[in-house]
Amino acid sequence: MTELPQDNLTMLSLVKEGGELEISLARLPMPQPRDHEVLVRVLATPINPSDLGLLVGAGDVSTARASTRDGLPVITATIPPAGMRAMAGRVGEAMPIGNEGCGTVVKVGASPEAQALLGKTVALLGGAMYAQYRCLPAAMCMELPVGTDPADGASCFVNPLTSLAFTEVMRREGHTAIVHTAAASNLGQMLVKICASDGIPLVNIVRSAEQVALLQGIGAKYVLNSSAETFQDDLTAALIETGATLGFDAIGGGKLASQILGAMEVAAVKRMKTYSRYGSDTHKQVYIYGGLDLGPTTLTRNFGLSWGLSGFLLTPFMAKAGPETVGRMRKRVVDELTTTFKSHYSHKISLTEALNPNVLAAYNAKRTGEKYLICP
Amino acid sequence: MTELPQDNLTMLSLVKEGGELEISLARLPMPQPRDHEVLVRVLATPINPSDLGLLVGAGDVSTARASTRDGLPVITATIPPAGMRAMAGRVGEAMPIGNEGCGTVVKVGASPEAQALLGKTVALLGGAMYAQYRCLPAAMCMELPVGTDPADGASCFVNPLTSLAFTEVMRREGHTAIVHTAAASNLGQMLVKICASDGIPLVNIVRSAEQVALLQGIGAKYVLNSSAETFQDDLTAALIETGATLGFDAIGGGKLASQILGAMEVAAVKRMKTYSRYGSDTHKQVYIYGGLDLGPTTLTRNFGLSWGLSGFLLTPFMAKAGPETVGRMRKRVVDELTTTFKSHYSHKISLTEALNPNVLAAYNAKRTGEKYLICP
User: A128 touching B, CB under 8 A?
Assistant: First the structure.
């Protein structure tokens, strides 16, 4: 094992009182693992939309300017007043970033479970992954097979567990098919494979003909282009055919969630024998789990009174689902890491490159088909 | 007992293919009770917003014109094309109206439970109450104490059971306080009394200073005027104080549901110890149970990811709650009919008066403080 450096280069995001966002690299002291902990050299860590929520938040990246401090890059950007209200809780606190990652265990504490991981490739969940090293409890590491490519192990948690969670929610709430938006994403492609293998009808909604081709190429049966003129009719036809009454929406803003609920209602009314002024009594549910469009959500409420729209977040779902379900989900992720749960990265960048304003603007655009991996 | 007439004057609502709404009075044959049924002379039946959904639906009452047929009044109005799509399921079927009512049992079937009701004053639920007589199973009647004023017995179901259901939902979902909009309504006043007696903190939202005075006059503690400039701050303060994370909204359209969820989130974040980019993990729920504003609902989603917005309807709630709960709720309604559940009617009209276009326009406006009772 090579000698460890004294410092641990770490990315920090700071919201300043005056309405300024500062993203920087800092030399923090190298952490020392306690008995139950391991020190991991981070080899790959993805930039997920949820990471950008913490890294950039309400900052206006079009105002980003680069500088340096102690020879390390710094980005400064303006936060509009409305954004500052939303970020009031984190003013003055330089926060580390990065939900998940993959790396090699280079130093361990005295406990047997920590010792057992020395030299192993592990997947990590727990924040602060945008750093060269991360020290955390052995229990928060998931051991990966020998020879796993760190790029494959970097996204073991957020997308794989979220896409699996969608099917768990479906079963728990008594639905039999799923609608998914922004479906050409890495997560969407995983969901296509899960549903194909589990026999779950999945209606994929994407925003371009290229994305239709992409998903059909991996075997998706229902792929609808929301920018097509026939979209609402196509959606209704797919919902009549599949009977899907559950949707997961990564977009959030605009009318899409409302369109989905409306089409579900048309499909449900078609199955009814008698007219009811209240619409169908079929419960229709859409979960918003992302905010690709941060604008307001508009609901026309032309879908009766048996409907729900809710936020969805993986962590509280897993807490509710319990350790047995979560254990089963995790096992499936490891078993199918290079097949179902294979992530595709369009760009691999260093920590320093991540602090280039042009690169920041590119990954902050969250374009479907573009996914960034940081190799610290 | 007086001789029964041959005909039963009944109000009907018909949507015609060409986009026309026709509301009429018709002489239907007098029904004859079967063994388990009773025939009730309807003495009082309220016009609830849910009745207007069936009576008027998407019809444009500003186009209403009066005529007569066989000496009985007819109203005709235009239905805009968008409205016709929503009403496609009922085209060509003349539908009777009126969810609930109160009357005297004038004729009964052979079964003991039907016989037991002869001459009694009963509250009725089951549609087709806008008529001089209603024949229905004895089991669908709720016997009222001797001497009950039909006006008091007319609204035994919809408003009393809905307001009680709000408190049942609160307990079932683990909330401890309630927010209610359009709170000066008959239903809102019942809820004020229920919550006062049950010790449930209730945040009432109304739209004018007069309504604030009205609710304070019956002992409401938190009454907020949504047209006041300080509304959002007032709401946040009330939610911090009460900890309410459950709302029932009769308005539906506009930003109010979003404002409530946003204020709940500010209150929840105030209780948090550490910052989370996802907002609080306190689940915040608003149910839309009415549509006083039929326009779109706009959600700014500045309330984290732990939230839900759903439709609410009494009937599926009661089916889910089960007979024991519903029985307890009904008993309370009868016990407190002239106190907690006393309805106030601003206008009493006949079936014929209900078919005057000016009167129709007035009750269809659903103004808080104005409530119509039909005495057939």
Answer: no
Is the Cα dihedral B325, B328, B331, B337 positive or negative? negative
pLDDT tens for B21-64 read 999 999 999 999 999 999 999 999 999 988 998 999 889 999 99
pLDDT level of residue A30 (50, 70, 90 thresholds) = very high
Instruction: Please tell me whether the overall predicted TM-score, pTM, comes out greater than 0.95 for this model.
Output: no
Q: Do B307 and A307 touch (CB under 8 A)?
A: no
A93 touches chain B (CB under 8 A): yes
Contact A1, A83 (CB under 8 A): no
Percent pLDDT > 70 in chain A is 99
Q: What is the pLDDT of residues B205-261, one digit of tens each?
A: 999 999 999 999 999 999 999 999 999 999 999 999 999 999 999 999 999 999 999
Q: What six digits make up the tokens of A39?
A: 């020190």
Contact between A306 and B311 using a beta-carbon 8 Å cutoff: yes
**In this structure, what token pair is assigned to residue A160?**
């794989």
Is A314 an 8 Å CB contact of chain B?
A: no
Inform me whether the C-beta atom of residue B308 falls under 8 Å from chain A C-beta atoms: yes
Chain A residues whose beta carbon lies within 8 Å of the beta carbon of residue B315: 278
B291 CB neighbours in chain A (<8 A) are: 301
Condensed to tens digits (0 to 9), the pLDDT of residues A270-321 reads 888 777 777 888 999 999 999 889 899 999 999 999 999 999 999 899 989 9
Q: Which residues of A touch B54 (CB under 8 A)?
A: 277
Q: What letter represents residue B291's amino acid?
A: G
| DSSP conformation class of A1 | -
pLDDT at A275: 74
Domains of chain A listed by start with CATH number: 7-156+345-374 (3.90.180.10), 173-317 (3.40.50.720)
Nearest to A89 among B269, B294, B296 (CB): B269
A-chain residue closest to B252, CA distance: A301
Distance from CA of A271 to the nearest CA of B (A): 12
Alpha-carbon gap: B148 to the closest alpha carbon of chain A (Å): 31
Tell me whether residues A297 and B298 touch, CB distance under 8 A.
yes
The mean-pLDDT minimum among A165-169, A188-192, B330-334 falls in B330-334
Angle A2-A122-A106 (CA atoms, 0-180°, nearest 5)?
A: 20
* CB-based contact, B304 to chain A, within 8 Å: yes
Residue B2 pLDDT level (bands cut at 50, 70, 90): low
Contact (CB<8Å) A308/B308: yes
Q: Which residue in the set A54, A277, A299 is minimally distant from B296, CB to CB?
A: A299
